[in-house]
Amino acid sequence: MTHTHRPHADHPHPDYEALRPQAVALRRAGLSRRQIRDRLGPLSDGALTDLLEGEPPPEWTKRPNAKDDLREQARALRRAGRTYDEIVAELGVSKSSVSLWVRDLPRPTKSPEAMHQMREARWAPYREARDRQIAETKAEAKKQIGVLTERELFLVGVGLYWAEGAKSKPYARREYLQFVNSDPDMIGLYLAWLRLLKIEPERVRYRVMIHESADVDAAERYWADLVGVDVATLERTTLKKHNPKTNRKNTGESYHGCLVVRVLQSAELYRRIEGWWAGMCSW
């Protein structure tokens, strides 16, 4: 297409047609507008624009895009598997900009471990708030109990034994006290109840019951310290056979098995417990 160039209406130039080839040649040689104006003589901005019509400015005269570096950083971070939110936080740019810069890149694939960490981080504030609420509820409920009276402890102990202790059956008479539990607080409450009933310490026997795959020695020390006896006085530990097919949760350092508390010469006391329980159920 042939362009016909005319002198700019505001600033006519007598040699306008002759200047066009010179201006183009200078532009293609890499000169700036100011340099071209210096070579060709006084020209208005409009006239110079007309002379250079269709000629792009040289690369060195273009203003660099301030976000080009950020764009490359964003793309590098995306290739490294970072999320939009992580890139925004890292570079301090808007999410819309990040989306525009990296939308042609594939979504990063997270490992199961990374996905788990992301879920944990996402839900952590909610769990913390829930845990605080639970702790406050428990603390308030604990205050409502206060210190148990002897009668309250007596009644609690009867119910505790009937729920967790060994009981005689019509087809198998076993009139003796045996209490098994893995909760140290339950054990402590039960022993407090025995003391209330004036059961002499020498009549009480202790035995650990635990899986054979656990740390048996550590469990024996744990329970002995809890009840205040020497490890050597414990009866022989009962080991439960380990089944590798089961997915047990009671493992690790916090697993101590159960403690069996047996009271010698307790047939008469057992019969009284049966009677006490029957009395508590006569409402």
What does this structure look like?
Helices cover 51% and strands 9% of the residues. It contains 11 helices and 4 strands, in the order H-H-H-H-H-H-H-H-E-H-E-H-E-E-H. The radius of gyration is 44 Å and the shape is rod-shaped. The protein starts with 15 loop residues before the first helix and ends with a helix. The chain is α+β, with helices and mostly antiparallel strands and 283 residues long. The model is unreliable at 1-5 and 7-12 (pLDDT under 50). It has helices at 16-28, 33-40, 45-51, 68-79, 84-91, 95-102, 112-145, 150-164, 184-196, 216-227, 267-280; strands spanning 177-181, 204-211, 235-240, 258-263. The protein folds into 3 domains: 16-61, no CATH class; 67-123, Arc Repressor Mutant, subunit A; 150-280, 60s Ribosomal Protein L30, Chain: A (2-Layer Sandwich), CATH 3.30.1330. Strand 2 (204-211), helix 10 and strand 3 form a beta-alpha-beta unit. A 4-stranded mixed sheet has the order 1-4-2-3.
Largest beta-sheet characterization:
4 strands, mixed
CATH architecture of the largest domain: 2-Layer Sandwich
- Contiguous helical run count: 11
- What is the topology, as strand order, of the major beta sheet? 1-4-2-3
Query: Rg, please?
Result: 44 Å
* Helix/strand class: alpha+beta
Mean pLDDT: 86
Beta strands, count: 4
Following the backbone from N to C, one meets helices and strands in this order, namely HHHHHHHHEHEHEEH
Number of domains: 3
